[in-house]
Design brief:
- Pfam families: Gln-synt_C.
- Its cofactor is Mg(2+).
- InterPro entries: Gln_synt_N_sf, Gln_synth/guanido_kin_cat_dom, Gln_synth_cat_dom, Gln_synth_gly_rich_site.
- One of its GO terms (molecular function) is glutamine synthetase activity.
- The chain folds into 2 domains: 110 residues, Glutamine synthetase, N-terminal domain (Ubiquitin-like (UB roll)), CATH 3.10.20; 291 residues, 2-Layer Sandwich (Creatine Kinase, Chain A, domain 2), CATH 3.30.590.
- The protein contains 13 helices and 14 strands.
- The longest helix is centred in the middle third of the chain and has 21 residues.
- The chain starts with 8 loop residues before the first helix and ends with a helix.
Length: 456
């Protein structure tokens, strides 16, 4: 379900008129999940929806640079700096509640001049995976859970982040997991967030305090994969804006603070029969189906090779450490939060898998696309999972790459993921991440100065 289900161009025009919108933010999620695009006056948007922005906007690192010496990247993205054509998705239109004047925001899809989707755009990658499911008569159902930190404003990147001061006038110094009072410390902020989400028609659910100092988590109602990716994309933007209004930062870095747990985007996932709506993970007698096992088998087989997408930055791998509330392997278990793939206790129709490996820093479109792709390959190849894990999987061996270079090598070598996600996407994505890692390696950390400067 989109934010506004079954909206047409005419419905979108009427909605803009009814809400007296004066300008429109035309958004394109890039590979990092950043909102790119243009801001148009209402009249211009009505006359000319076929806006154009350079194709290279989807080929940038998080620092705004471009790979210059990568042959596969050069084959994928034109060196003439040509334009993409943007077309609004009417169902994604919503208000910008923090704007002074009546303003709308709408997510756009990217097309080449010949009318085909730009295949390395994040929404296009997710559409490609969803079509594979649709061609088999299946419909994925997902439910993201997004963790994040609130911090004091930090205008000097050389300084560590600190927990923000709440209404008591004090910052957190002890573990406050699931504490209602700790959430209430930031009531004015969360009241704004819920108000903003209601105005935007974002279907958010439970808010909790997570383990870390100033770390929160928010659940989304389960539903259509594209709509939920849109919701996460919008929510990240909304939360950052609300936090700034209250003189603090909100961050989705995977590991923003030393000594504190990292932040994840857990994604609950199941698959329905498109014709009947039946959950294919359960048999008629209520027992787990072979497809349920195959799906888990696919997640186990292909997730290690997909880690460069699920953990997309150097910082992401600081979260994947033993005994830090994050999985280090691809084991699966019943109601076990130490494994990579948890099976929550549920009814027959709600049988699902929770992928706990994905970082909060992952692009929501790509994170959802990749976990669905891994499960899809398990279904079609009828892969069998390992035996269910009992006990703490933190004591099990590492089964995931422990750094971005290793993850990129594994992604490039996995032909089945390349086939499902798209060759040009893999070429563009890995080239960008390779350059980001090179940029990171030019920076000398405080740890190196502290321990190596006078000791080696």
């Amino acid at each position: 379900m989109s934010i506004r289900e079954n909206f047409s161009d005419a419905d979108m025009d009427q909605w803009l008129n009814d809400n007296r919108v004066t300008e429109i933010e035309c958004l394109v999620p890039d590979l990092t999940g950043v909102a790119r695009g243009k801001i148009l006056p209402r009249a211009k948007f009505t006359r000319d929806r076929g806006m154009r922005i350079p194709e290279a906007v989807l080929g940038m690192t998080v620092t705004g640079n471009y790979p210059t010496e990568d042959a596969a990247y050069d084959r994928a993205i034109s060196n003439t700096d040509r334009d993409m054509i943007l077309r609004a998705d009417p169902g994604s239109i919503t208000t910008v509640p923090w704007a002074i004047d009546p303003t709308a925001q709408v997510i756009h899809d990217c097309y080449f001049a010949d009318g085909t989707l730009v295949d390395f755009a994040p929404r296009s990658v997710l559409r490609r995976v969803l079509k594979l499911y649709a061609d088999r008569g299946w419909t994925p159902v997902v439910g993201p859970e997004l963790e994040f930190y609130l911090t004091e404003k930090n205008i000097d990147p050389d300084l560590p982040l600190k927990a923000p001061i709440g209404r008591s006038g004090r910052a957190e110094t002890t573990r406050q997991v699931y504490s209602i009072d700790a959430v209430n410390e930031f009531d004015p902020l969360f009241e704004d967030i819920y108000d903003y989400c209601a105005l935007m028609n974002l279907d958010v659910d439970t808010l909790i305090h997570e383990t870390g100092a100033g770390q929160m988590g928010l659940n989304f109602q389960h539903g259509d994969a594209m709509a939920l990716a849109d919701n996460v994309f919008y929510f990240k933007r909304t939360l950052r804006e609300a936090a700034l209004k209250h003189d603090m930062y909100a961050t989705f870095m995977a590991k923003p603070m030393a000594g504190e747990p990292g932040s994840a985007m857990h994604v609950h996932q199941s698959v329905s029969d498109a014709a009947t709506g039946r959950n294919i993970f359960s048999q008629a007698d209520g027992s787990p189906s072979p497809q349920f096992r195959h799906y888990i088998g696919g997640l186990q087989r292909y997730t290690p090779a997909a880690m460069a997408i699920l953990a997309p930055y150097v910082n992401s791998y600081r979260r994947i450490v033993r005994h830090t509330a994050a999985p280090i392997n691809v084991q699966w278990g019943m109601d076990n939060r130490t494994v990579g793939f948890r099976i929550p206790i549920s009814g027959v129709e709600q049988r699902r898998v929770e992928n706990r490996i994905i970082g909060a820093d992952a692009n929501p479109y790509l994170g959802i696309a990749v976990t669905l792709a891994c499960g899809y390959l398990g279904l079609v190849d009828q892969l069998e999972p390992t035996p269910m894990y009992n006990g703490s999987a933190y004591d099990h061996l590492y089964e995931l790459p422990q750094g971005l270079p290793q993850a990129l090598t594994m992604l490039r070598q996995e032909d089945r993921l390349r086939e499902v996600l798209g060759e040009r996407f893999i070429d563009v994505y890995t080239a960008i991440k390779e350059l980001e890692h090179q940029e990171f390696m030019t920076v000398i950390s405080p740890w190196e100065r502290e321990h190596l400067l006078l000791h080696v």
